[in-house]
Amino acid sequence: TWTPDHFVDSAVLALQHTIGPDDQVILGLSGGVDSSVAALLLHRAIGPRLHGIFVDNGLLRKDEFETVLKAYEGLGLNVTGVRAAPEFYAALTGLSDPEAKRKAIGRTFIEVFDREAHKVEGAAWLAQGTIYPDVIESVSVHGSSVTIKSHHNVGGLPDDMNLKVVEPLRMLFKDEVREVGAALGLPGEILNRHPFPGPGLGIRILGDITPEKVDLLQRADAVFINLLKEHDLYSHVWQAGAMLLPVQSVGVMGDERTYERVVALRAVTSVDGMTADWAHLPYEFLAEVSNKIINQVRGINRVVYDISSKPPATIEWE
Ligand code: XMP
User: Cα of 245 to ligand 1 centre, how many Å?
Assistant: First the structure.
C-alpha cells in the first residue's frame, strides 16, 4: 500500500541513484506546495546540491516573498531569493490583454531564472514540482487546437544549459503531495496553502498593471485572506483571492464624493480546480471583509462578491 513514508524512502533512493554524485540540481521555488515538497524531497536526497531559486516577480501576495523565503531558509534549503519586481513591471508596461500579460510574465520569469541558473556551477539537472494533474492537463491543452489559458508552470527551461529534467512528484495527486510534504516536515503554513497562479496578481489586476495597483490589491487581498484564516474558513475553501477591477465607481465619505476602484472577492470550493462552485461564505463574514477593506484601503470604495461557478466562469477573471 502507498504511504507517504514509503514514497519518501523510495523517491530519495531513486533520486540518489539517478543524479550523479557531483551533479548540481536547480529548482524554481514558488512558495506553493508542489515546488516546496519537491525541494524538500530533493534536499533529503542530495542536500545542498539542490539549488532553489525563488523569484519575487512583484506579483506575489503581500509580504509573501519575505515570509516564504524565511520559511525555506528555516528548513535548511539552499535557496536564493531574487528580487526582480522592476523587471516584471517593465515587461508589463502598457499590456492589458490577459494572454499578453501571461506571456510577458512567463518570458521575464525565464530570463530571470535563466540568469540565476547560469550562476550554478556544475548544474546538470532542472527539477520541477510537476504533479500528475499538470501532466494530464498540459497534454490535453497542447493536444487540442485551442488554448483556453496558457499555463506557464510546465516547461520553459534554460535550453542552452542542456539540463536533464527530474520531476519527482510526477505520479502524485495533490492530496498525496500534501501527505508527502507533511512527512517531510513542511510547515502547515505552506502545506495547506491555497493554489496561486504563476502569473500571480498579474491576472487579478484586470487590464494594465502598475506598482500602485499591485499595492492596492495586495492590501485588499491580505484583509480577505487574513479574515478567512481568523474565522477558520480558509481551509474550507479551495482557493480565494481578490480581483482589482478596471472600473471606478462613485462613493461617499464624510461629505466628500469619492470616485475609486472596485474589488471583487472570489472564493470557490473545488476538488481539482477543473470545476468549482462559488463558496457560500456567511453574509456577516462578507460584511466584515467589505467594511475592513473599504475602511483600510484608501482607493477602494466598493467591494463585490463573485457568485459564478466554473464552468462557465473560470476561477480567475483573466
Ligand atoms: P481557471 O481560472 O482556469 O483556473 O479556472 C484554474 C486554476 O488554475 C490557476 N491558473 C493558473 N495557474 N498559471 C498558473 O500557474 C496561469 O496562467 C493560471 N491561470 C489560472 C487558477 O489560479 C486556478 O487555481
Answer: 18
